[in-house]
Amino acid sequence: MDKIAIRGGNVLQGDIKISGAKNAALPLMAAGLLTDKALELINIPDLSDVASMAELLTQLGVVVDKNSQGMRLCTKNLISTTAPYDVVRKMRASVLVLGPLVARAGEAHVSLPGGCAIGIRPIDLHLKGLEALGAKITLEDGYVNASAPQGLKGGDFTFPVVSVTGTENLLMAATLAQGETRLINAAREPEVADLAHCLNAMGAKISGIGTDTLIIEGVKSLEGATHQVIADRIETGTYAMAAALTGGHVRLLHGRLDLIPTVAPLLLQSGVSLEEEENALLIKAPSNRLQGVDMMTEPFPGFATDLQAQWMALMTLSDGASMITETIWENRFMHVPELCRMGANITVHGSSALVRGVKQLKGAPVMATDLRASVSLVLAGLVAEGETLINRVYHLDRGYERVEEKLRGCGADIERVR
Ligand code: UD1
To answer: Which candidate, 152, 151, 192, 149, places its Cα nearest to that of 168?
Structure first.
């Protein structure tokens, strides 16, 4: 199994190209199921989660062609409406085919995702939302069966808690429903807006994009379109923090401040400077130590839970302390013991972690436990004294495109070992 070896201490300097967002690419690919015309997606990142989604879509009858620009999806005919356990188990975002399948074919069978390292991750809201659009839902042998043989009907659905993929599933389903749907307390994540813009380019009638109320006027059918996937804000935040942690100076090509509206002010507070250039973001570490700054994760525009572990790695070397509170996932501190093995001083109290800054981290063999936890160990390894060996890097490959190459390009001593 691949490992990543890092010899820490190098200052990051140079340019890093930010890839297309994984969490935008996955729902956009699922949107290909909604039409029998071709959907061209530009700037699709080369990630194992994207490959898993392509594999699932192929099983459903989608013809997926990768090209130098990105990906072309064409669903002339569906050959299956089942997302099997084997695929859903690997990638929970497979549930994104549920809405489009019921909308297009009048039925879908999707394996329940089961447990996941970072929490229970239920899909009850996806199901209640589809029921509000007239689908009949049953659970059998670990599968969700959804059916709407006469088609979905527009309706109102209020999310009791904000759900990103829940909003995306219902948004896609509602585009082909009869009449108007209102999704209230919808997720405002930029990836949801990106999906909505693509659906509108395909002929959908969605308004309220970027707000917490999405209004969808159903249409009979959707057309093909060409759409460019937005830049990955999680990758942007991750590399900004990597630059800051190593005392570096990095230009993030395609980075955008409006995609990190809460991360940017906290970075500024900790002493990092951020400057927006044309189609890039310039990150400069402070000349003194980073300052400890408290942080709480929240749905967008709040601080992304997918950047919590990286923020914690940043704060391990801060002058002072930082209280980090996780409000989205109940089991998302698995990086804590690993960071502590590298010399960090962190104590967890329920959903909060108190990070007291230390002067230096030390390299150690560590274990990646989930996607974002694993990159926080990469960040810590970049600045730790000696060698850090990260095991189970397949987590990293799910969401970070060519991570070693990008960091090596800025002077990091990092390599993949087999
Ligand atoms: C998406 C992101 C993931 C990110 C998360 C939160 C994708 C592919 N994944 O995951 O990277 O960490 O948003 O920003 O975009 N919930 C329910 N019932 C549901 C659905 C969710 O109770 O039916 C709860 C969850 O337990 C969690 C919260 O809602 O506490 C947010 O989850 P949700 O936004 O749905 O996360 P995902 O869409 O799975």
So the answer is: 192
Determine the atom of ligand 1 nearest the C-alpha atom of 93.
8
Higher-pLDDT residue of 1 and 404 is: 404
User: From residue 143, how far is each of 51, 118, 151, 193, 214 by CA, in Å?
Assistant: 23, 22, 21, 29, 29
Which of 53, 79, 59, 103 has its CA nearest to residue 229?
A: 53
Please give the pLDDT value at position 114: 60
- For the whole model, what pTM was predicted? 0.97
Using a 6 Å cutoff on CB, does residue 163 contact ligand 1? yes
Residue 392 has pLDDT above 90, yes or no: no
* DSSP symbol at 291: B
Say yes or no: CB of residue 93 within 6 Å of ligand 1.
Answer: yes
Sign of the four-CA dihedral 257, 260, 265, 268: negative
- For the Cβ of 330 lying below 6 angstroms from any atom of ligand 1, the answer is no
Mutating to test ligand 1, I would choose from 124, 139, 165 the residue with most ligand atoms within 8 A of its C-beta, which is 165
Beta strands in 50-160 (DSSP E): 63-66, 70-74, 82-83, 107-111, 136-140, 143-147, 156-158
Whether pLDDT at 330 is above 90: no
**What is the per-residue pLDDT across 4-34, written as a single tens digit (0 to 9) for each?**
999 999 999 999 999 999 999 999 999 999 9
User: Ligand 1: which residue has its CA nearest to atom 8?
Assistant: 23
Q: Which of 49, 97, 121 to mutate to test the pocket of ligand 1 (most atoms within 8 A of CB)?
A: 121
For this structure, is 116 an active site residue? yes
**Rg of the chain in Å (alpha carbons):** 21
